[in-house]
Automatic annotation (TrEMBL):
This is Response regulator. The keyword DNA-binding applies. The modification 4-aspartylphosphate is found at D73. GO terms for molecular function: DNA binding. It comes from Chitinophaga oryziterrae. It comes from the Bacteria. The lineage of its organism: Bacteria, Pseudomonadati, Bacteroidota, Chitinophagia, Chitinophagales.
């Protein structure tokens, strides 16, 4: 990814007039599509803007053409969940994705950024904020509003200030199961190794996730790194 970014920025620097940028706008409101096209037209870039109204059209269009940036509403016909990001990144991993939504930024921004979006912008944003967000992603950088940035920093501060290390609440057996889970070992194999029933191992996994307040192995690995746990 770093190599792709460096090559892209190199081309943008030495011959911007020849670097045609392809942008896909996905929104089911014509006035929003029109407004974004007008804003993009006023940016100091040469851009071709394609617009679609439904998520199925996003996938079909991306199968036919490469895009530098996708501006995506998260409430589209045919797609209204965080799984849309997985489908988009599977189709074109290098495409930058800017979530452009009327949904409450305080509730949705962090989740979508953690799920793989490169930026989150409220539809209540000013024209200048919208320009800044689009230009930031075209520069292959992440964008978040000042309010979202503050939320993330506050969340990190709260985690660091917490008196209780959640890993200290795990039993010895739960630590054993956790260690094997981080190695990618499936539940049935863990059951064999620890001489337990699969249902018992599954229960341990559920307890571990509950105590650590996580929902995936990826989050488990992130939390282990955050608390500098040796396993």
């Amino acid at each position: 990814m770093a190599g792709y970014k460096e090559y892209y920025l190199y081309l943008q620097r030495i011959m911007p007039e020849y670097l045609m940028i392809n942008i896909l706008v996905a929104d089911d409101h014509s006035i929003v599509r029109y407004g974004l096209k007008k804003i993009i037209a006023n940016l100091p870039v040469s851009a071709t803007v394609t617009t679609v109204e439904a998520f199925d059209d996003v996938i079909v269009t991306m199968a036919k053409q490469s895009f530098d940036l996708l501006i995506l509403d998260i409430n589209l016909p045919g797609g209204n969940s965080i799984q849309m990001l997985d489908a988009v990144k599977l189709q074109q991993p290098h495409t930058m994705v800017l979530i452009f939504s009327a949904y409450d930024e305080k509730i949705y921004a962090i989740d979508y950024l953690q799920a793989g979006a490169d930026g989150y912008l409220s539809k209540n944003s000013t024209e200048e904020e919208t320009k800044l967000a689009i230009q930031t992603l075209l520069n292959r950088e992440k964008y978040m509003s000042p309010s979202t940035r503050r939320m993330i920093l506050n969340k990190l501060d709260q985690q660091k200030d917490s008196q209780t290390n959640p890993f200290e609440t795990l039993s010895i057996r739960e630590v054993e199961v956790m260690s094997l889970l981080t190695k990618g070992i499936p539940l049935f194999k863990i059951a064999e190794m620890l001489h337990l029933q699969i249902s018992t191992v599954s229960t341990y996994k559920t307890r571990i996730f509950a105590k650590l307040e996580i929902s995936s192995i990826i989050e488990l690995l992130e939390k282990i790194r955050f608390y500098n746990i040796s396993i």
